[in-house]
């Protein structure tokens, strides 16, 4: 049983401005890693640039991170970090820029081939990362994981090391205020998925559960707002905390089959990561319920939900579009994802036939 | 609002043996820092030596840490670490060796005068520390604090830096099995005090509360066993977890007046640290109750207690010897401790007269 989460957290409105002195300890030049729009739209980029300028820290910007970033995309960022001779990285965005920044930080300090990133530990430690989430779902700001798209294998793969945790994370819910409702829901469901997959997991332990349960309680408070679409600032703060807590929990345990089964829905069907997970969650909980009814019941209680039916109804309200696969796709995805390594964390011995039955619920 | 707890935790029976590979990353030579008896009696010293030998890591032993270690005592350890040219420290014991190891780690890498330790950050980072608690109370394995006795000022003082957290802590309740009941109680009450002082504190935040509340729930489970004296292994595991959680909470907030008022009871009257805190806790909770009744009530609920009377009864059962001060001492201690810096964290504006009234309850 172990626990590790070395990221220093600053949280609350204006936490970057109020902790501006944090940055200068990281060096003289930063690479800001972000996507094309979210960093700007959220206001986080302006806040970061303002603080860097005040501290006389130079910076370059790599704003080309793709949604579901590829290995090549991150390698390009790593080459820029090398060329620019930066001392550290400031990652701003949702899961894509945050995950990409971990690979970029590693490419920046190591001469490796792009796909060697999946070997994990490298000769040199990666650059330090300051993470600024602009969505409330990924939890990447407090995990060691970087999930990258590998086109040659037609899937997503992850790497992690003890040194790919962000050194500092700033959690300011203001940066999530510009998110459209759809992304707010999808990312919240990603956090929900993290919490459930962390507890309903062979690797769960007391430490990860403390965080996962707290995340579930917070998400439970936010469910009515997610359904009604009335997302207040207070709800955004709750969701950002929940996302972080859920991230801490999966940092200890990893995810399980919902995540591995969700990847083809993203890779082949273009669903967002949270949406992909959300379409599989009810089936997963039903499977877990057969293995450990009392635990599933306890977790539903934290969410403020009566039973599996109510859980399924909530997910259907949040994500009504469900008939997206052909039967052939359902078969193909099951045969592919049953080989994923985190299948071993599932609390029952899930079979390919069961995975197929989960996907089959999503057929046209 | 911030959170930082970079220590990697390994927990459970035989966690040192089961994670022996952790040590070699720390270097080729260790200084084992401990007191005269507890490391040996607990079995922790044997386990550590066995793992170091297996990994071909050389070691020296500094087993002269005093109860309530003085600055000079730690300085002596630091000089040994320098002379032995060790790469890291393994600290085994209760709060005294664990706190001493933080000072020793700092003296080992910096040429400073003994009392300069209280300046905090030094030119060089301290040696890395692996911490093995053998009591369940201090939480020092997960805090940045080192509390040292300063004879020239007739009190205890603390120092801390971001680098004085242990890098790794091993929590094996077997090492607490040899503790006599009195120390088990005193240390458990120290953890209780940490939890309460962290929440009933102007610096409390959501992150520290998550841990402090969990600690209170665990201590609540252990109270009947502490009173009856029937301390099973399961209770020892609960207390060790509670102590760690309470430590994480004070690492965020610091302690408040119970700790500063307890120091003279230890310095002048020779009470253990936990006993000193325990004699003041009821008075402290009464004061807090006037400032925030609903919060105190909530916290008593986590402990499984009805009200302040029941809390006071529990403490009187655990620590019956209470008439230990003269009126002159009560006055002197109040006038001294009202100047402590953590008085500012108290949730109400405590006066010297109130502090005197707390001490006066302990007069003969």
Please outline what is shown here.
The structure is a homodimer of 364-residue chains. By secondary structure, chain A is α/β, with parallel strands linked by helices. Chain A has helices at 15-18, 38-42, 44-54, 71-84, 95-109, 181-199, 206-228, 233-253, 257-267, 273-291, 293-302, 308-318, 327-337, 352-360, and strands at residues 2-3, 8-11, 29-34, 58-62, 88-93, 128-133, 145-150, 155-160, 168-171.
How is the topology of this model organized?
The structure is a homodimer of 364-residue chains.
Chain A: E1 2-3, E2 8-11, H1 15-18, E3 29-34, H2 38-42, H3 44-54, E4 58-62, H4 71-84, E5 88-93, H5 95-109, E6 128-133, E7 145-150, E8 155-160, E9 168-171, H6 181-199, H7 206-228, H8 233-253, H9 257-267, H10 273-291, H11 293-302, H12 308-318, H13 327-337, H14 352-360
What does this structure look like?
2 copies of one chain form a homodimer. The first copy, chain A, is α/β, with parallel strands linked by helices and 364 residues long. In chain A, 50% of the residues lie in helices and 12% in strands. The first copy, chain A, has 14 helices and 9 strands. In chain A, a hairpin with a 4-residue loop joins strand 7 and strand 8. The longest helix of chain A has 23 residues. Chains A and B meet through strand 1, strand 2 and helix 7 of A and strand 1, strand 2 and helix 7 of B.
């Amino acid at each position: 049983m172990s626990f590790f989460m070395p990221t220093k957290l600053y949280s609350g409105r204006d936490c970057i401005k109020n902790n501006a002195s944090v940055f200068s300890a990281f060096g003289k030049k930063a690479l800001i890693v972000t996507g094309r729009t979210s960093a700007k739209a959220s206001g986080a980029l302006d806040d970061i640039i303002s603080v860097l300028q005040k501290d006389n820290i130079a910076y370059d910007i790599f704003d080309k991170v793709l949604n579901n970033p590829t290995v090549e995309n991150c390698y390009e960022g790593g080459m820029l970090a090398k060329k620019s001779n930066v001392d550290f990285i400031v990652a701003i965005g949702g899961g894509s820029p945050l995950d990409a920044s971990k690979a970029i930080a590693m490419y920046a300090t190591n001469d490796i081939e792009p796909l060697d990133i999946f070997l994990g530990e490298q000769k040199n430690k990666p650059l330090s990362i300051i993470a600024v989430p602009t969505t409330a779902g990924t939890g990447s700001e407090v995990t060691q994981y970087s999930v990258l798209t590998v086109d040659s294998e037609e899937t997503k793969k992850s790497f992690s090391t003890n040194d790919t945790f962000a050194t500092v994370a700033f959690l300011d819910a203001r940066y999530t205020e510009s998110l459209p409702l759809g992304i707010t829901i999808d990312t919240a469901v990603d956090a929900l998925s993290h919490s459930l997959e962390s507890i309903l997991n062979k690797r769960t332990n007391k430490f990860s559960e403390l965080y996962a349960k707290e995340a579930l309680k917070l998400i439970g408070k936010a469910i009515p707002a997610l359904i009604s679409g009335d997302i207040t600032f207070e709800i955004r703060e709750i969701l950002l905390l929940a996302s972080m807590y859920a991230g801490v929990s999966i940092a200890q345990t990893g995810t399980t089959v919902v995540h591995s089964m969700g990847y083809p829905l993203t890779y082949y069907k273009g669903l967002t990561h949270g949406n992909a997970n959300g379409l599989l969650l009810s089936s997963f909980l039903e499977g877990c319920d057969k293995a450990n009814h009392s635990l599933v019941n306890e977790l539903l209680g934290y969410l403020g939900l009566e039973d599996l039916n109510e859980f399924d109804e909530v997910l259907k309200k949040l994500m009504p579009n469900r008939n997206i696969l052909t039967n052939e796709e359902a078969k193909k995805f099951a045969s592919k994802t049953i080989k994923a390594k985190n299948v071993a964390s599932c609390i029952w011995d899930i079979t390919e036939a069961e995975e197929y039955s989960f996907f089959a619920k999503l057929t046209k």
